[in-house]
Specification:
heterodimer; A: mainly alpha; Serine Threonine Protein Phosphatase 5, Tetratricopeptide repeat; 6 helices; B: Double Stranded RNA Binding Domain; 6-stranded mixed β-sheet; two-stranded antiparallel sheet; 9 helices
């Protein structure tokens, strides 16, 4: 009986050692994660609100800007999306996933946003 | 060699510790990215709220005799607009614009021929060709057979003839008129092409190596120019030109009509995006 209780206590102790982020990045991460959850349920406006908040809490958090750009893109706010992608890449120039998202965005935006009048 | 058997309670403690470590690792290092499908709404390039109907009039076409690019383009654009635009598509006979332009040039005196570009210049067409170029087109003879791009240039005066298009507009109750030129011509190109070839080395291992090979290829070039005319005034409100090409191995025998549709398939979304809002589907990666 004692061994089972001890095992349970060890388990709880180990799980509770998962770091509880108290800093800005931790708060921003929580907002980003919540935004991802709601975006996956199709609640894009709520997601954008969360990602905007994350970027406000931690302006150096590239993932927040990347997700925000995707949210803006989905809502058709293409200028804002471009700015957010550029900010994300400025923060993490080597991030291949952000770069790929931005390339896909540019492909659509550049193809359709401006009139094509070639001589 | 056998180890000392662990007492049961110690073994339980160890197992619980390992399980807890796994749980903590999963919680801390869960997936850091998520693929998500998105639909990007694209606003139309033209404000067509003033129109309820659209007339795909016809095109000055040429390049090859294998495809009637005028008929095919009209049919394709009408069917696309019927399903993907809120505008009502007018069913009318396809206009033979090349013949119409020839007729106009016969009946128009040199003075009136020079009037057309002047009218066009005064209209607020954003994509209007510069006036000197139009004056030059106005004096050029219209080639009966259109084989290449420069054969289409003299026909530009037809789209600048506002009084003609205004009359067409009145006939069809002031629709948005879509017209233009379509050049669909054969193309061939020879040169070195890099392609991947599978090879088996001395140890029986497969590997793919890039090989440069001289190839003779043939295909087609499609160069459409879409001109959007306000049926109420006869003035050009917008125009856009595209160029697409496709090349096949010279041994491949691809019918011209199939190539035409292959190339038009690439352009149709751009054409539609001028008139109606589109949703472009894609996938992006959300990051944690």
């Amino acid at each position: 009986m004692f061994s089972r209780v001890a095992a349970f206590l060890v388990f709880i102790a180990a799980v509770s050692t998962t770091p509880l982020y108290a800093d800005a990045r931790g708060d921003a991460k929580a907002q980003v994660a919540f935004g991802i959850d709601v975006a996956q349920k199709g609640l894009w406006r709520e997601a954008i609100y969360r990602w905007e908040k994350a970027a406000e809490i931690d302006p150096t958090y590239a993932a927040a800007y990347n997700d925000l750009a995707i949210g803006y893109e989905h809502e058709g706010q293409l200028d804002k999306a471009r700015q957010a992608y550029e900010k994300a890449l400025e923060l993490e120039p080597g991030n291949a996933q952000i770069r790929q998202n931005f390339e896909l965005f540019k492909e659509i935006n550049d193809r359709t946003a401006t009139a094509k009048e070639r001589p | 060699m056998t180890g000392l058997p662990l007492p049961k309670n110690v073994r339980n403690l160890l197992l619980a510790g390992v399980a807890a470590l796994c749980a903590a690792t999963t919680l801390a290092c869960g997936p850091s990215y998520f693929e998500i499908p998105i639909e990007t709404p694209i606003q139309p390039k033209l404000d067509v709220s003033a129109f309820q109907r659209v007339l795909i009039a016809g095109f000055v076409a040429g390049g090859t005799d294998d495809v009637d690019a005028n008929q095919e383009t009209v049919r394709l654009l009408r069917s696309q607009l019927r399903s993907k635009s809120s505008l009502r598509v007018i069913d009318a006979d396809v206009m033979q614009l090349q013949e119409i332009a020839q007729e106009q040039s016969k009946t128009t005196s040199p003075e009136t021929a020079e009037e057309a570009p002047a009218n066009h210049e005064s209209s607020a067409a954003p994509a209007a060709t510069p006036a000197p170029a139009q004056a030059e087109h106005a004096s050029q003879p219209l080639p009966a057979k259109i084989k290449e791009e420069k054969d289409l240039e003299p026909y530009e005066r037809l789209f600048a003839n506002t009084s003609y298009w205004k009359r067409i507009g009145e006939e069809y109750q002031n629709p948005l008129i879509v017209t233009g030129t379509v050049l669909f011509m054969p193309n061939s190109r020879s040169g070195f092409v890099s392609r991947d070839v599978e090879q088996i080395d001395g140890y029986g291992r497969r590997r793919v190596v890039p090989v440069r090979q001289y190839l003779e290829r043939k295909g087609f070039i499609l160069r459409p120019k879409f001109v959007f005319i306000d049926g109420r005034t006869g003035a050009t409100i917008y125009s856009e030109s595209y160029r697409e090409e496709v090349l096949y191995n010279s041994q491949t025998n691809t019918p011209a009509l199939s190539s035409y549709f292959e190339l038009m398939d690439r352009l149709v979304p751009n054409f539609l995006s001028a008139l109606s809002s589109q949703k472009v589907r894609g996938t992006r990666v959300l990051l944690k």
